[in-house]
Design brief:
Elements lengths: L19 H10 L13 H12 L28 H16 L3 H7 L20
Length: about 130
């Protein structure tokens, strides 16, 4: 399910990490008609879309549009796609748990993380 261009008859699956706005922006940068369906794209158009998705900063896509800004490891802006997105999220949660941050502890205890009230809701799976 990576960003590999296959033969023209095969169907390209939906990529995780690509929303509507990012997809529209990539199609505009690649000069692809937005009213075309995915199966109607030519091989050349698919290659342009793939190269723009793999290197968004080279095609002047702003940093605020990317889904991984100021990465903890290298401090650069990236747009993470497909399976890498799940592994990056898992790594972030493991880092929070390892440093014993409040969010990491809440994740490890399987509690709500973002400040929700938990007195009466979220009792599934726990004894009352």
């Amino acid at each position: 399910m990576g960003l590999v261009v296959h033969e023209s008859g095969s169907f390209q699956h939906i990529l995780r990490g690509v929303g509507r706005r990012y997809a529209n922006l990539v199609c505009k940068k690649a000069d692809v008609d937005l009213s075309k369906r995915a199966g109607e794209l030519t091989q050349e158009e698919l290659e342009r879309i793939v190269t723009i998705m793999q290197n968004p900063t080279q095609y002047k896509i702003p940093a605020w549009f990317l889904n991984r800004q100021k990465d903890v490891v290298d401090g650069k802006d990236h747009h993470v796609l497909a399976n890498n997105l799940e592994s990056k999220l898992r790594d972030d949660l493991e880092r929070l748990k390892k440093m014993r941050a409040h969010r990491g502890l809440r994740h490890s205890w399987h509690l709500r993380v973002r400040g929700q009230h938990t007195k009466t809701t979220g009792r599934k799976g726990k004894s009352i």
